[in-house]
Design a protein that fits this description.
The complex is a heterodimer. By secondary structure, chain A is mainly beta. Chain A contains one helix and 18 strands. Chain A has one helix spanning 7-16, and strands spanning 20-27, 37-40, 46-47, 61-62, 80-88, 96-111, 118-119, 136-141, 150-157, 162-164, 168-169, 179-184, 204-214, 219-233, 240-243, 252-253, 259-266, 275-283. By secondary structure, chain B is mostly beta strands. The chains are: A mainly beta, B mainly beta. Chains A and B meet through helix 1, strand 1, strand 3, strand 5 and strand 18 of A and strand 6 and strand 17 of B.
């Protein structure tokens, strides 16, 4: 049976059996971000290499797992888990909250200057979490936005039922590339890093279309993500380490093929800043 | 072996004095480029700097007491303690550098390396690595093996034969070579015996063709990883690994049925200076300190071959080592002049085991470009029981 039945198996995997993979990642963003607006570090330079949400317009596109934070190749039939996550930065802008996520699928080049309904091509379906349960949507600027827009989108939820989202309110401020356009903390109306779903929905299987109500400007990527764990950097030059399960809750499962990366709610711009991360995974 | 309780641990440390503390000091050189991993055992300081000597393509095992066969490159952490087991209980580290922070340091047990020079660095064909030799047996103050290549003393081996092994040797059993010359060695049944010079007596030479095959210090290579590190910088280039073969734990025949994944790319001249791990960095194909293993492989027992035929071949007269090492523990150094400590009694990995004979070395990752001539210092506390 995959997983760990007891601590003995856990420690054996970690210390004696070689069922462990560790990695280091480094992010040096070139994009200017804004305090208290979430930013997508997958688009930042460094290692892993930056992701630019390149694909055919409005067409569901999957990520290549080994181009994200590298967690090793497939371990099936074993299950793999995140057991350590460390973050450190000498840059004041990098102080803030972090979410480590599995980026599953994205729709590139959604035009936030178009008043027409933009219909997505879903020929490519979810490569994992195939029913969509637990998958959330974030809207990432791939060109600078103007701000002040609103939009809705239609989607199939975790049960395969077509739904229309509540109206999403974008940041009032213009944001740069890699910022999440609905995550301005100072605005009560913005939903945060993830778009609001219809009441009761717990995930998104696919996005059918997006319609701007008030134009926000720029281009975005709509990204389906599975949040795995949260962390923080409390102050510069101070490492925050998460260790599962001693200091935190359940070790988070990382499925084969997962594309891992981070979003951050920064204290300021992270442009030209430095972020050091380390992660450890074990499997059984 | 090990500790039955915290009381037992305390008793071994205090009453029995089974502790050892080692202080390390290395000075970085040249400038470490941002985002790169480095192996520090080639740097000046304490312990001694190593140069990856030996025969090209041949596995050169590394040991606590004999180092790389030429220089003792790791700390002396207490010698062989069998039937006890030795464990790491605390580590601490700091860097003092004008630039480069933060850093991550990783302690590894360097099992050994394959030295590469001249056309083995610049070539684009498959490099076949040497993990085994046929041998004959004779009598010279004990059972004396004669073979082709120059294996380091204490190299851990197993034997096979087409007919009957010399008396005293058995298949599927670990032995240790006690080097006599570049082509001969005696055989010991344990590392402690090898260090003491207690070798197997000669009875007969056996019959048939006999083969010795190297083993990593870590049982079957479990937990081991592989990486390329520069000793002497090549002039230019930056090749990709397009093919490879290695033995995963549990395979003894040297067939090399597994392959590194993801076409790791090696750095060009700017990222291929002394002590730099060539496939770390910030580009596609730079997977960090270690080459990606296949599937759910839990280690590397031997590396059989590799091919650098993609990208741009290295030029010049560089020296690179293809290393096998077992990671032990990590520690982050968040800023210059900050002493970081990790308590390995109360944090995972809890009390990581240090194999008898382990040749320990530090690896260092710098988020920024680290100023040259910056001191890296560390301490490691060991306990056994």
């Amino acid at each position: 049976m995959a997983g760990f039945r007891n601590y003995r198996e856990f420690v054996d995997a970690l210390a004696d059996n070689g069922q462990v993979h560790s990695c280091t990642f480094r992010k040096v963003p070139s994009q200017t971000s804004t305090a208290n607006i979430w930013a997508d570090l997958s688009m930042a330079a460094g290692n892993p290499p930056p992701n630019y949400y390149v694909g055919s317009e409005l067409t569901a596109t999957v990520f290549e797992g080994h181009r994200g934070i590298f967690h090793g190749y497939d371990k099936s039939p074993a299950n793999k888990y995140l057991v350590e996550l460390g973050l450190t930065s000498p840059t004041a802008g990098f102080v803030g909250q972090y979410k480590l996520m599995d980026y599953v699928l994205f729709y590139p080049f959604v035009d936030m200057d178009s008043a027409d309904e933009q219909v997505m091509d879903n020929t490519t379906t979810l490569p994992r979490y195939t029913d969509g349960a637990g998958l959330l949507v974030m809207a990432v600027a791939v060109t600078p936005s103007v701000g002040g827009g609103t939009f809705t989108f239609t989607y199939y939820n975790q049960d395969g039922i077509l739904k229309t989202s509540p109206t999403q309110t974008c940041n009032t401020a213009a944001v740069n590339i890699a910022s999440l356009i609905t995550s301005q903390s100072a605005s009560a109306a913005t939903p945060g890093p993830f778009l609001r779903l219809a009441d009761g929905d717990t995930g998104v299987r696919s996005i059918v279309s997006l319609t701007n109500v008030v134009l926000n400007g720029g281009l975005i990527a709509l990204v389906l993500v599975k949040p795995l764990c949260d962390s923080v950097i409390r102050e510069i030059n101070t490492t925050r380490e998460l260790s599962f399960p001693q200091l935190n809750a359940t070790p988070q499962r990382v499925v084969d093929g997962a594309y891992l990366n981070l979003i951050v709610l920064p204290a300021g711009t992270v442009a030209a800043g430095l972020l050091l991360g380390q992660a450890k995974f074990i499997w059984n | 072996m090990g500790f039955s309780s915290d009381d037992d641990l305390l008793n071994e440390m205090t009453t029995n004095g089974k502790v050892n503390k080692q202080t390390w000091s290395k000075t970085t050189a040249p400038v470490h480029t941002a985002g790169g991993w480095h192996l520090l055992c080639g740097l000046n300081g304490y312990p001694n700097a190593g140069t990856f000597p030996g025969t090209d393509l041949l596995f050169q095992s590394c040991w606590e007491t004999s180092g790389d066969g030429t220089v003792v490159i790791g700390p002396q952490h207490g010698g062989v303690v069998a039937s006890d087991t030795k464990h790491l209980i605390n580590i601490g580290a700091s860097m003092v550098a004008a630039a480069g922070a933060p850093w991550q340091a990783k302690l590894v047990d360097l099992q050994g390396y394959y030295r590469l020079s001249t056309t083995n660095v610049t070539g684009t064909g498959s490099r076949t690595l040497i993990n085994s030799n046929t041998f004959t047996a004779s009598s010279s103050s004990g059972l004396l093996l004669t073979y082709t290549n120059d294996f380091n003393t204490f190299t851990k081996v197993r034997f096979t034969t087409t007919t009957t092994l010399p008396t005293g040797l058995a298949i599927d059993t670990d032995y240790y070579l006690v080097r006599v010359s570049s082509t001969t060695a005696r055989v010991a049944t344990s590392l402690a015996n090898a260090i003491a010079g207690t070798v197997i007596a000669y009875t007969d030479a056996g019959t048939g063709t006999h083969t010795l095959r190297i083993q990593t210090r870590a049982n079957q290579g479990i937990g081991c990883e592989a990486f390329f590190v520069v000793q002497t910088a090549p002039t230019g280039g930056g090749p990709n690994m397009t093919a490879s073969a290695y033995d995963a734990p549990g395979t003894y025949d040297g067939a090399g049925t597994r392959a590194f994944q993801g076409t790791p790319s090696n750095g060009a001249a700017a990222d291929a200076y002394a002590c730099r791990i060539t496939h770390s960095g910030n580009a596609t194909g730079r997977y960090g300190p270690f080459m990606p293993k296949q599937g759910a492989d839990t280690g590397i027992a031997r590396i059989n071959s590799f091919t650098w035929s993609g990208g741009t071949a290295y030029t010049g007269s560089g020296v690179i080592a293809l290393c096998i090492a077992k990671p032990i523990a990590d520690i982050i150094i968040p800023a210059t002049g900050v002493w970081s400590e990790r308590d390995l009694r109360n944090q995972l990995p809890s009390l990581p085991k240090i194999e008898d004979g382990a040749c320990l070395a530090w690896m260092l990752f710098g988020v920024g470009a680290t100023t040259t001539a910056s001191p890296f210092t560390a301490t490691t506390d060991f306990v056994w029981g």
